[in-house]
Amino acid sequence: QVQLQESGPGLVKPSQTLSLTCTVSGGSITTNGVYWSWIRQPPGKGLEWIGNIAYSGSTGYNPSLKSQFAISRDTAKNQFTLQLRSVTPEDTAVYFCASSDSRWPFGSWGQGTQVTVSL
């Protein structure tokens, strides 16, 4: 069973760049057929898929979101990262990382990390 753990700053100021890391254990981020996603949940709202990075390293993003997101990975550390440029208070949310494969879409999740954008 793969395990995921998010890490990053809990508080960022508007206009700064937010970086979050998801550390994966119990499986490799290069395992064939597995996709690694970032999802967020703003306060009082539903889950919102931000994007993913595939086992191959290719990325995909939610077209309805602004284009300031970037997902990358470090295969040596078995981690993948979310960067969000020019954050605003509207980016305040709990951010989750999750894994998907053909049998288990979004089958494994991290516990989530709260990010607050505020002065």
Draw up the topology in text.
Elements: E1 3-7, E2 11-12, E3 18-25, E4 35-41, E5 48-54, E6 59-61, E7 69-74, E8 79-84, E9 93-100, E10 108-109, E11 113-117
Parallel strand pairs: 2-11
Antiparallel strand pairs: 1-3, 3-8, 4-5, 4-9, 5-6, 7-8, 9-10, 9-11
Q: How would the global form be characterised?
A: globular
Distance between the termini: 39 Å
Computed over alpha carbons, the radius of gyration is 14 Å
Average per-residue pLDDT, rounded, comes to 96
The number of helical segments is: 0
The ordered H/E elements are EEEEEEEEEEE
The beta-strand count equals 11
Low confidence ranges:
none
Q: Find the structural class using helix and strand composition.
A: mainly beta
Proportion in β-strands: over 45%
Helical content stands at under 10%
Largest sheet: 7 strands, mixed
Oligomeric state of this protein: single chain
Q: If you had to describe this structure to a student in words, what would you say it looks like?
A:
The mean pLDDT is 96. A hairpin with a 4-residue loop joins strand 5 (48-54) and strand 6 (59-61). The chain has no helices and 11 strands. It starts with a strand and ends with a strand. The strands form 2 sheets. Strands 2, 4, 5, 6, 9, 10 and 11 form a 7-stranded mixed β-sheet that branches. It has a 4-stranded antiparallel β-sheet with strand order 1-3-8-7, with no helix packed on it. With 119 residues, it is an all-beta fold. The protein is globular. Helix content is 0%, strand content 50%.
